[in-house]
C-alpha cells in the first residue's frame, strides 16, 4: 500500500474529529457534512476515493469558516467537492465490480475452454479406440478369411485327390474290362479288333481305307469281319452305352450310305439298332470311325 493511501484516511479521521462548533449554525455545512458522513458509513464505499473525500471535507470546513462575500464561492466549491467525492467513490466501486466481473468472466472462459479441451480429448480418444477396434476386427476377419480360404483349398485338394484316385481306379477298371471284352470278342467272332484310341467321344476304332471300294457304299469282306468283331466287343463290354458311326467321304451322301452300311453290319453282329447312331459328311480325306461310348 502506498504512503498516500495511508496518509489520506488518517487525515480524514482528524478532520472529522475536529469540527468547529459553529459549523452547526450553517445549514449548508450540516447538509454537506451529513452527505460525507453517509458516504463514510457505506461499507462498500468508505475505502474508496479517499483523496476526493479529504478534499470535500476540507472544502466543507472552508465553507464553515467563510463569511460575507466568500460564502457563495465557498459553497459552490464545497458542493462540487462533495459531489466529486460521491461520484468518485461510486465510480471506483463500479470499476471494482467491473474488474471482479471481468476476472470471473475470464475464469469462466478459461474453465469453459478447459472443459471444451477435455471433451475434445475424450472424443478423440473415443474415436481412436473405435478406429482401433475396427482395425482389429478387420484384421481378425482378414485372418479368418485367409484361414477359411486355406481350409477350403485343402478340402478342394483332398476332394480332387479323392476324385482323381477314384477316376484312376475307374479308368483302370474300365481298361481291364475293355481288355477282357476285347479278348472275348476276338474269340467269339474269330476276328481281330483294330487298334483303338480314347478321346472325349469315347473309344474310337478306325476301319481301314480299303473298307469301301472307290465310290462304293458296300463294305468289303475284311471290313464286315472287323464290324462283326466290334459288335461282339460292344456286347461283351458292359460299360458300353451306345455306338456312333462317323464317316467322311468326298460326297456327303456317299458318306451317309457308308455309315449306314457299317451300322447294318454292327446290327447284324448283334448290336441293337437303337444303340447305333450314324453321321456322314463331306471331307477331303476318307475316314471311317466307330465310336464306342461308355456309361
Automatic annotation (TrEMBL):
InterPro entries: OmpA-like (IPR006665), OmpA-like_sf (IPR036737). Residues 1-23 form the signal peptide. Transmembrane segments: none annotated. Residues 223-284 form the OmpA-like domain. Keywords: Coiled coil, Signal. Pfam families: OmpA. Residues 84-155 form a coiled coil. This is OmpA-like domain-containing protein.
Amino acid at each position: 500500500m502506498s504512503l498516500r493511501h495511508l496518509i489520506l484516511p488518517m487525515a480524514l479521521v482528524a478532520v472529522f474529529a475536529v469540527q468547529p462548533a459553529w459549523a452547526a449554525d450553517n445549514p449548508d455545512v450540516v447538509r454537506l457534512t451529513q452527505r460525507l458522513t453517509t458516504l463514510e458509513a457505506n461499507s462498500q464505499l468508505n475505502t474508496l476515493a479517499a483523496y476526493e473525500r479529504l478534499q470535500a471535507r476540507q472544502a466543507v470546513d472552508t465553507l464553515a469558516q467563510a463569511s460575507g462575500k466568500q460564502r457563495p464561492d465557498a459553497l459552490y466549491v464545497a458542493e462540487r467537492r462533495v459531489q466529486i467525492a460521491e461520484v468518485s467513490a461510486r465510480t471506483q466501486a463500479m470499476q471494482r465490480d467491473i474488474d471482479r466481473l471481468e476476472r470471473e468472466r475470464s475464469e469462466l472462459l478459461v474453465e469453459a475452454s478447459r472443459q471444451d479441451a477435455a471433451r475434445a480429448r475424450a472424443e478423440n480418444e473415443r474415436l481412436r479406440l473405435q478406429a482401433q477396434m475396427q482395425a482389429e476386427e478387420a484384421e481378425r476377419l482378414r485372418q479368418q478369411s485367409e484361414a477359411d480360404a486355406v481350409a477350403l483349398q485343402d478340402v478342394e485338394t483332398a476332394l480332387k485327390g479323392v476324385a482323381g484316385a477314384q477316376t484312376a481306379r475307374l479308368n483302370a477298371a474300365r481298361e481291364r474290362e475293355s481288355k477282357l471284352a476285347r479278348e472275348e470278342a476276338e474269340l467269339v467272332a474269330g476276328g481281330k479288333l483294330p487298334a483303338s484310341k480314347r478321346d472325349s467321344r469315347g473309344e474310337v476304332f478306325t476301319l481301314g481305307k480299303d473298307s469301301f471300294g472307290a465310290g462304293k457304299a458296300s463294305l468289303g469282306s475284311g471290313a464286315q469281319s472287323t464290324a462283326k468283331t466290334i459288335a461282339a466287343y460292344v456286347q461283351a463290354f458292359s460299360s458300353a452305352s451306345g455306338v456312333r458311326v462317323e464317316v467322311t467321304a468326298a460326297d456327303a451322301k456317299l458318306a451317309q450310305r457308308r455309315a449306314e452300311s457299317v451300322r447294318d453290319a454292327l446290327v447284324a453282329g448283334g448290336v441293337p439298332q437303337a444303340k447305333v447312331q450314324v453321321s456322314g459328311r463331306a471331307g477331303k480325306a476318307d475316314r471311317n470311325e466307330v465310336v464306342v461310348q461308355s456309361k
